[in-house]
Amino acid sequence: MASASVLSRLNQRAKQAESMITDLKQQIAILRQNAAITISNPEEERLRVENQKLRSDVEELKSQLILTEIRNGVKQIPLPTNRTVAKAEPPKKEPTNQPEIKQAPAAANNKDQKPEKSNKKEKKVKQSAADGEPKAKKGKNEPKTEEKMDVSRLDFRVGKIIDVKKHPDADTLYVEEVDMGEGRNRTVVSGLVNHVPLEQMQNKVAVFMCNLKPAKMRGILSEAMIMCASTPEKVEILNIPPGAAIGDKVTCKAYPGAPDVQLQPKKKVWETLAPDLKVNKEKVATFRGDPLVIEGKGALTAPSLKDVQIK
User: What is the pLDDT of residue 56?
Assistant: First the structure.
């Protein structure tokens, strides 16, 4: 009897031990799951921040691409909202009881008439040869003149930003209202959101190129371009000399001349001249090494950048 009682207790304790082991396994699984969540939360946050930064970089690259295309004369066409295209079916021919009319005789008549046309041409050639008046090709004897290609063709003027806001459809673009001293304000779209704070853009006096062909940037027409010292990492708006006023023109003494009323994209004037616009080691804006100046007031300069392009 005693042995049966002992076996009963041992079985009971074994069951209790199995139950405890099962509970412990469940607790361990819960702890592991919580630990995984604790580890994954910071990782998710880090990935979310990186994703947001990548989106911002993509938007900036898109804006730079749009600006480059506009400067190269590529027309910006908005994407259509409705992509469905209705295909027109050709009208079906209705059966008629009338017999088909053969066109063979007409073709024969046309063949018979062709020699008459050739005879007329021969008569004209013979007559012109008899008169001794050979036709001269147009433009063959006209002298070709080389088109001037220097900074005097670019219309640089001083303007003041009187209002600025972010583009409603592009995170990296500003939309500015600029007073050029013309009696009306020009709208200018600039990709400076990631380089110049909004408060520094307000009431900023700067130099703008005013004879680019106006072009739409994300649906808003841009009528000029603000001039900046530029690198891939940093962009600075060029400073004007003390005493410069709205409407003052920027010139280069080594290249006198009147600017084009409007640059023609097909002629690639801006694309040809842009590589020669640079800020030198003294932070002075130049064209082919000669300074860009406002007559009687001084030269344009960059705030801090040296040996960089002007864009």
Answer: 76
- How far is it, in rounded angstroms, from Cα 212 to Cα 278? 19
Task: Round to whole Å and give the CA distance between 251 and 151.
Answer: 8
Contact 305, 232 (CB under 8 A): no
What span, in angstroms and rounded, lies between the C-alpha atoms of 23 and 14?
14
Q: Is the pLDDT of residue 120 over 80?
A: no
Distance CA 62, CA 45 (A): 26
Residue 265 sits at the vertex; the CA angle it makes with 262 and 266, to the nearest 5 degrees, is 125
- Can you read off the two tokens belonging to residue 10? 């041992």
Return the minimum-mean-pLDDT range out of 59-63, 107-111, 120-124.
107-111
Buried b (16+ CB within 10 A) or exposed e, 56-90: eeebbebbeebbeebbebeeeeeeeeeeeeeeeee
Which carries the bigger pLDDT value, residue 147 or residue 253? 253
Residue showing tokens 């900023």: 204
Query: Which two structure tokens, joined as six digits, stand for 109?
Result: 């008549």
